[in-house]
Amino acid sequence: MFKFSGITINKHILLAISGGIAAYKSAELVRLLRKQGAQVRVVMTHSAMQFVSPLTFQALSGNPVHSELLDTDTEHAMGHISLARWADALVIAPATANTLAKCSHGLADDLLSTLYLAASCPVYVAPAMNQAMWHKPVTQENIQKLKYHGVTIIGPEQGDQACGETGFGRMSEPVEICRCLMAEPTTQCLSGLKVLISAGPTREPLDPVRYITNRSSGKMGYALAKAALNAGAKVTLVSGPVLLSAPANAELIKVETAAQMYTAVIAKATEHDIYIGAAAVADYSPALVATQKIKKQAGQTTLTLQKTKDILADVAQLTKRPFTVGFAAETHDLEQYAQDKLTRKNLDMIAANWVGRDLGGFDSEQNALQVFWKNGQKTLAMTDKNHLAEQLINLIAERMEPKNT
């Protein structure tokens, strides 16, 4: 059992580095893995060695760096076989568009791509490339092929890139890759179940230019989708507009407005065992959407808003209803409002969190939750949203047991 917590372990990690500027991040990844007690061996393509010296990785890993497919110094000149047998996990970080293409098509013209074919251990890939290359349909097709063959995709992330552009394509940070590699295996507490999750904000248009929205980043909902997948569930993610990559193997349904999210969730709800409403859905939308841009006026202007449909309440009223979990983001009287929402909307559980404070809430990497159900509650302390999501998924699984028996 492996845990990202400083406990000494003896996991064999084979790190394969392809030629991208993000190769410099791999040095920190080696350091973190060694700190967790893992043994690390490094493979570099010739292109990767143009960015970072092999000597750096030799010093950090404590092992020679491998770069040649046909190495006469290895037993029977079959270094790729012995390395593949040694590894408990193979991680390609960074994985360039070229490397993804070769692996997805089964090409084996260098040590890295040959190792991918020879490896029988779990394989992880952390893509890194220009945002335009990442969004290219052929790259996305290659990603889907790798997922189909059981590869775990880590990232990429959205942000500034070395080329000066901004978008998806940044390699995930070493600490996140390390967490994925060293994480304690989950209990598969949702094995065989189907989980529907709504995440992110909605946008309610005023005219072709403007809309009403909120500060939700979608990070909590996406973390829940990832945690549910790790717990063995099949996951459908209904997402408002966010700057996040959907978790691998989740079915993604993109929506924009509250009405679109309502339609998508209601259509899928009865097919699922659990519904988690983590989205920050607009309570009101403009009664009239202008067909042309609304021009600035001299004085005040008035907007007429109409109430949107209540997704949570309507899911909870379905004849064949899933186990329904709501969220409540509050600036004051958190317990009172959460308990009222739990009862009024006939929910099985509600997870409440503070917003408008220094820590946690919207657009933060951390959060804390006060979780309520009928005649019970539990506090989940401030932590990163990935860990918090795992705790909430485990709690949902525990609370479902009485309902299923």
Q: Which characteristics define this entry?
A:
405 residues; alpha/beta; Rossmann fold; 2 domains; 8-stranded mixed sheet; 5-stranded parallel sheet; 13 helices; globular
Question: How are the SSEs placed, and which strands pair?
Answer:
Blueprint: E1 12-17, H1 23-35, E2 39-44, H2 54-61, H3 79-86, E3 89-95, H4 97-104, H5 111-118, E4 123-127, H6 131-135, H7 137-148, E5 152-153, E6 157-160, E7 166-170, H8 174-182, E8 194-199, E9 204-205, E10 211-212, H9 219-230, E11 234-239, E12 251-254, H10 258-269, E13 274-277, E14 284-286, E15 305-307, H11 311-316, E16 323-330, H12 334-344, E17 349-354, E18 366-373, E19 376-384, H13 385-404
Parallel strand pairs: 1-2, 1-3, 3-4, 4-5, 8-11, 8-13, 11-12, 13-16, 16-17
Antiparallel strand pairs: 6-7, 9-10, 14-15, 17-18, 18-19
Helix pairs in contact: 1-2, 1-8, 3-5, 4-7, 9-13
Q: How is this structure best described in words?
A:
The chain has 405 residues and is an alpha/beta fold. The chain folds into 2 domains: 12-182, Rossmann fold (3-Layer(aba) Sandwich); 194-404, Rossmann fold (3-Layer(aba) Sandwich), CATH 3.40.50. It is 33% helix and 24% strand. It is built from 13 helices and 19 strands. It has helices at 23-35, 54-61, 79-86, 97-104, 111-118, 131-135, 137-148, 174-182, 219-230, 258-269, 311-316, 334-344, 385-404, and strands spanning 12-17, 39-44, 89-95, 123-127, 152-153, 157-160, 166-170, 194-199, 204-205, 211-212, 234-239, 251-254, 274-277, 284-286, 305-307, 323-330, 349-354, 366-373, 376-384. The strands form 5 sheets. Strands 12-11-8-13-16-17-18-19 form an 8-stranded mixed sheet, sandwiched between helices. Strands 2-1-3-4-5 form a 5-stranded parallel sheet, with helices on both faces. Strands 6-7 form a two-stranded antiparallel ribbon. α12 links the parallel β16 (323-330) and β17. α1 runs parallel beside α2 (54-61), α3 (79-86) packs across α5 (111-118) and α4 (97-104) packs across α7 (137-148). The longest helix has 20 residues, at 385-404. The model is unreliable at 1-8 (pLDDT under 50).
